[in-house]
Amino acid sequence: MDTRIVDVKTVVTCPGRNFVLLKITTESGVYGVGDGTLNGRELAVAEALDKHIAPLLIGRDADQIEDTWQYLFRGSYWRGGPVLNSALAAVDTALWDIKGKRANMPLYSILGGKTRHGALCYTHASGSTFEETTDNARKFIERGFKVVRCQTEIPGTVGTYGAGQSSNPHGESLPFEERWEPSPYLRTIPKLFEHLRSELGDDIELFHDVHERLTPIQAARLAKDLEPYHLFFLEDPLRPEHHASFRIIRQHSTTPIGMGELFTNKWECLPLIQEQLIDFIRCDLAHVGGITEARKIAAVSECFQVQTAWHGPPDISPITHAANVHLDLATPNFGVQEWVEHPTEVSEVIHGGPTFVDGYLTVTDAPGLGCDIDLEAANRFPYQRAYLPTVRRADGSVHDW
Ligand code: GCO
Ligand code: MG
What we know:
alpha/beta; globular; TIM Barrel; 13 helices; Enolase-like, domain 1
């Protein structure tokens, strides 16, 4: 059987930021690449891949993607959270890459073919003042972006998600500690969007990422206060744990809601989709178990007129960015794709990935994902311990980042 898996190699590398990559090789020599990067906990995924999962893959048929997914997901008995489902994503993505190469077709073609010429995309504009955020948004608009996420530093806080992080008193290899309070945040963000609309006009699509920091009633207030500025959506207003809280936002506002980067499987997304409590589902392909799981989430979302907006920050590799775009192109209920450019060293290690043209992302017609890993280059950039920031309230208590 020439599709028998004969080698599984985990690659941890830090070309400007840490990535956990996977290369699965079959008997015929055809190989696929995957990405299971979990920012701040990379080595947990690498160890799961190396010590627990790789031995299970040797000898399996690379053609059987769904069976392998079920075998790894259910076979562990313990349901996967972010660590195991990121490891599963790396395997799944590499197997889809192999399938594309064997078929000599780009992945979007295998997933059903193009439903659009490119994936509408957005990037992040931030600043320490309203003017700086506006100038940065304007630069992206001039480059052709049609959707821009806008964040600003909140007066009286120390850093805030997406803007205003200064040097770290705890040293670069320990978490930066932000200090944040909801009241100044809730007062500032509507004023930011009033400023942005008066400077940038109504044609550009704008939105904001709350990063799960608010209580249900605070989120409802923000969504309501932002209504006059017609956001594309309000991202991750609440923590992922309590779905029913989203009803409170819906009862008070018509601001569209996006949610999902902290979900790790389809069942977590389901109540929000079924009850139409969100408008955009934005899971991370590298954390939900890959393309196999994301396709199912997209399909169930289609039934409820929820659109996809897969997570695309710089802390996942160009391999997942490519997987995002292949899926975006083939998904009828695609909405928008997040895309943040990587540091230039990343292209020394990972070749390929999406291309930006006038507000849209495209991929080449190369078979599979169209990405490759340069293993020698990866060795030149060894892992460096790094953490996401943490947040404390003014009284010193821990808050969600
Ligand atoms: C986004 C996300 C990211 C996350 C990051 C954590 O919308 O892009 O909120 O910025 O914070 O992926 O590693
Ligand atoms: Mg986010």
